[in-house]
What we know:
With 182 residues, this protein is an all-alpha fold. Helices cover 76% and strands 0% of the residues.
Amino acid sequence: MKNSIFNIRRFGRVLLRDIIAFRGYYIGLICGVFGLFLYFAIQDHSFSGRDGSVLLIAASVLIIVSPIIMNIKRRDTAINTLLPASSFEKYLSLLINNVIIAPFIVLITLYILSRCAYLLIGTSEVFKEDLSLTRLFNLGYYSMVMMFQSVFLLGSLFFKRYAGIKTFLILIAAFLLYRGIV
């Protein structure tokens, strides 16, 4: 009997198709991180530790709201419907592309920019301590970003209009409800 819910080969093809389809999304994320880096590097020439933390927070916000910014809906719905893959495989591919690959690309771009800062700005001490590999790929930080990223991805898929605002309000309501219960 053929497995109609999950087949690893079929999932691999869907994942590869989505990676190729999202190349513009990834280039947009890289350009956004590059712009943030240049803004924070040019903004303050003293490069205090606070600026590296603010840059990391700004990059995290870019990662988290990127599904809504890039308007990740069911693009080309007719083609996506006709794909010989299950709905589970399609959503799992979307989740992997947006919750695992996109944050990884942003964090690697931040790390590479912090190491190549001398070529861009003229100093080699730009955010070196704040953007080290151990801080960027800390499991707690990465899992927190992935959690919020997945919530905003689901919000962008569920809500047709004003997805960012509605998802943010639901997160605030859930936080207030949690604080009221605990």
